[in-house]
Amino acid sequence: MSRGKWLALLCLVPFAVFFIVFQIAPLVWVLIHSVQSEESGWGLANFIKIFNSKFYLQAIQHSLEISFWSSLFGIVIAVLGSYSLRKVDSRLRNFVNAFANMTSNFSGVPLAFAFIILLGFNGSITIMLKQAGIIQDFNLYSKTGLIILYTYFQIPLGVLLLYPAFDALREDWRESASLLGANSWQFWRHIGLPVLTPALLGTFVILLANALGAYATVYALTTGNFNVLPIRIAAMVSGDISLDPNMASALAVILVGLMTLVTLVHQWLLKRSYHVAR
């Protein structure tokens, strides 16, 4: 092996150590403790308890529903926004990109506080909509409210991820399709969407994982009173009443399993999209 390759491997050592210490080691710790129980010792007692409990199943259901719908709404809006950015002036495009980059990091307590001011029970927008007769009652702290909140921080991330994907669409393709008699719908159905499908699927999976693991925002908004997986895991690690790190580990394994399943489905759909595109 040449000296350059040895030097390259040496430079990778700090990253490998960092990855093992902060990624692999915690995952192994969680896996080991997920099959431990203070009552029955080693076994699957924690998982049996989870899947026999309506409370834990509700947390899984809420997490999946909020993540799916917020990712779906987020990616639809992000697609429209990313495509529109291609058609506007470069100065406005650069401003929107910079704004999306900034707002993609706007989450946690500041985001929850902003939504309480705007859409809380006495929020400014809520009051205006009630006075206009558009809505009668709106609860930001419900599942619908959380979907709206999650969608907000999904949109900037979706725009940042999808905007470069539109570089793959060449303008001469549209012109050629138009000369051959294809309308806009036919162009997007047979050319645009197949080309963008890998980027759309990849972005959707990232948004889904982003929503599944979100904790600070929902905790700050509901003070831990809404039943989702990250809240349940945190309550069992740091709670004074329901302290059970082993059960928290089992829930964390389920969360990791859901993300792994989503990734595998994404890879399968990606292979099918490539096959259809060919």
From TrEMBL:
Q: Which PROSITE patterns match?
A: ABC_TM1
Pfam families, per the entry: BPD_transp_1
Subcellular localization: Cell membrane
Q: Which InterPro entries match?
A: MetI-like, MetI-like_sf
First-listed, main subcellular location of the protein, grouped into a coarse class: membrane
Query: Which parts of the sequence belong to the ABC transmembrane type-1 domain?
Result: 60-266
Q: Looking at the record's lineage, which domain of life comes first?
A: Bacteria
Q: What family is reported?
A: Belongs to the binding-protein-dependent transport system permease family. CysTW subfamily.
What is the protein's given name?
Answer: ABC transporter permease
Q: Which organism is it from?
A: Pseudomonas kulmbachensis
